[in-house]
Fold this sequence. Notes:
By secondary structure, the protein is of the alpha/beta class. The protein is built from ten helices and twelve strands. It has helices at about 15-30, 50-55, 60-75, 95-105, 125-130, 160-170, 200-220, 240-250, 275-280, 300-305, and strands at about 5-10, 35-40, 85-90, 110-115, 135-140, 150-155, 180-185, 230-235, 255-260, 265, 270, 285-290. It has a ten-stranded mixed beta sheet with strand order 3-2-1-4-5-12-9-6-7-8, sandwiched between helices. A two-stranded antiparallel ribbon has the order 10-11. Helix 4 crosses helix 5 and helix 8 crosses helix 9 (about 275-280).
Amino acid sequence: MYSFKRILAAIDFSNIDETVIRYLSFLCGIIRPEKIYFVNIQRDLDVPEGIREKFPELNRPQDEKLREEMMQLVQANFPGFENFDIEYDVVEGSPLPEMLRWTHIKNVDLAVVGKKTESEGSGMLAQQMARKGSCSVLFVPNSAQAKLEKFFTAIDFSENAKLALEEGWRLAQQHKDAGLFCYHTYNLPLGFYKTGKTEEEFAAIMLENAKSKCANFISELNIPHERITALFELEEKKSVAEMITRAAEQNNADLILVGAKGRTNITAMLLGSVAEKLIKLDKNIPLLVVKQKDKSFKFLDFIKNV
């Protein structure tokens, strides 16, 4: 578990920017980061000479104009912005490589991006950031509420799930009455019917097994057991991601946390199928994909494969 000391927020001057900034303002009031970067990436900042001659108002450098607009946007939606160390950057280049490069050179702990619906845009950049970036990523939907009292963590008893649950606990400690849920889905093994047990009987066996594994899993963490509510559900025909979001909504969760898979080699950062599907679902609850930050990450080797 590590603190989110350096945060980067992606600004693209779309309708979701105001929501992202307001939510980040609320979050920063809780975690008090050391540095915040607001970054806008443009594929091309150059204005053709012929166009500038016809429209003299475009002679002003585009990065200056965009930086000023970004500052105005932040100051209008980030109460108390003057209490934080904020940097505004306008970058030219291809969006994904530049976002990855910027999070690397600024040693970013958390990237904050808007979670767009299909009607608002594809959201592919945000998904790729979570898949290939070396830092944790927070997805903020347009309907996000400035509230963090119930934290919902999907667990599979892996090291990645441990990271997510620990991060949920770190955030939950900021509110004395915060609820911390861990949610696990279990299934029936193929061929269970050969044991002579009914589906209901074997489901009960698998549930007890899941509860035992969960107890052992939690015992390895420095979290008071009484602060965690463990939830279990037998897998259905629905995808696990859909089951997670449904359970989170039923428990009025304010934030869903999921651990990302670590790097399997120097050029691959993997999310896992459940995390991938959670990102794509058009839901109203913010999603935090937690990654173990790797300070030895060889970015130049990786970026060749983007």
